[in-house]
Amino acid sequence: MSDTIFTKIINREIPADIVYEDDLALAFKDINPQAPFHVLIIPKQAIATVNDITQEQRELVGHLYWVASEIARQNGYASEGYRLVMNCNEFGGQTVYHIHVHMLAGKPLGWPPYQERIKHNPVEA
Ligand code: AMP
Questions:
Q1: 30 C-alpha to center of ligand 1: Å?
Q2: Which positions are catalytic?
Q3: 18-21 and 25-29: which strand pairing?
């Protein structure tokens, strides 16, 4: 798998506003925030998409969610709540092919979080 911009952040080749780091994971502020608090939680091991997660990596991916809960506690968002999102491939809206959990916090979030793309509406297809 070719390196993404997230590998460069892990290797400190480009800057990021890092909020959490351990042996397995790194979390940093999203450069284009969609909520008052928007961080990306990534594994240090590069995995391109959710489809590429192996059985051996299940614990690592679970760890990303524990990291999210820890960041929520450390930044005061645990009680009021937040949203965790992983986008997969084109229709999921994935643009960086190194899996990441989006953590969105700091305001009430709407649901559903998207507008249907009419041309892909199965009812009309
Ligand atoms: P996704 O579209 O789910 O793949 O999410 C990729 C996210 O990475 C987007 O929300 C971007 O704003 C964010 N992003 C891209 N480059 C950087 C960067 N250098 N530092 C922080 N966030 C970034």
A1: 6
A2: 100
A3: antiparallel
